[in-house]
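Show me a record, fold above all:
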Amino acid sequence: MMGGVFFTKGHGTANDFVILPDPDGELELTPPLVAALCDRRRGVGGDGVLRVVRAAKHPEGAGHAADAEWFMDYWNSDGSIAEMCGNGVRVFARYLVENNLATPAPSGLPVATRAGIMFAVVGADTISVRMSTPRVYAASTATVGSLTVPGIAVDCGNPHLVCGLHDGVGLAALDLTTAPLVDQALFRAGVNVEFVEPAAGLDGLDRHVRMRVHERGSGETQSCGTGALAVGAVALRDAGLTTGSVAVDVLGGRLVITCDERGAWWLAGPAVLVATGEVDPSALTIPPATTQAN
């Protein structure tokens, strides 16, 4: 029988997570338990779960153990597993540093994920993460209600479809309470869909856009770090730039995407820990197990 489970609640631009310390990989984490923890009325509430486990103690992290002590075991709020979460890495790094599990380094704190090792530079207010290089690879569309929007598929370690709004359609008009319809043959494992509109220019930045996102396994969220990375990559490409910085305003705040002169891609923004506590799994309403996996 599982006893009480300690947790921390954190967020990056209101993309919020239940953080579970499990350094030796002993927690019996299941899709129904994750879904119950993330339930905003009956559980702790969050867009996903970040399990903090040593890379050597997790079968999917063991291959990175020589280069990163910690593995970010990320689960979507519906209990499915995802490869990567940009805001999650930033919150994960904040947790490691504030709990004396890791020491910040100028070159970045290595964090192992299912999409590889990310490096987080931890500041007082902002955390910047060196991300995988986004790969723009196909044209497609997303349909919301009666509106079909052309988009660009981008691989950021997880799949994205970036859709620019045109013809007077604004972000506020979109109904993202249900998942946009996409090409299932192209996105066999599901896809995060970003809708984008231009915003007024900002000093020191090459582009400025606004974004809403529907995340696979979580629904519409206030922010998505890898989604912002995908949007930034498309914005720079459309502007004919190989380097530069893009401000991406999400519902929960602002993220900045930068491709530097070395070709490294960075995601920067705030990451905050707001609460700690203990949850009794036996008191949670555990939903039936599902077969969905991302």
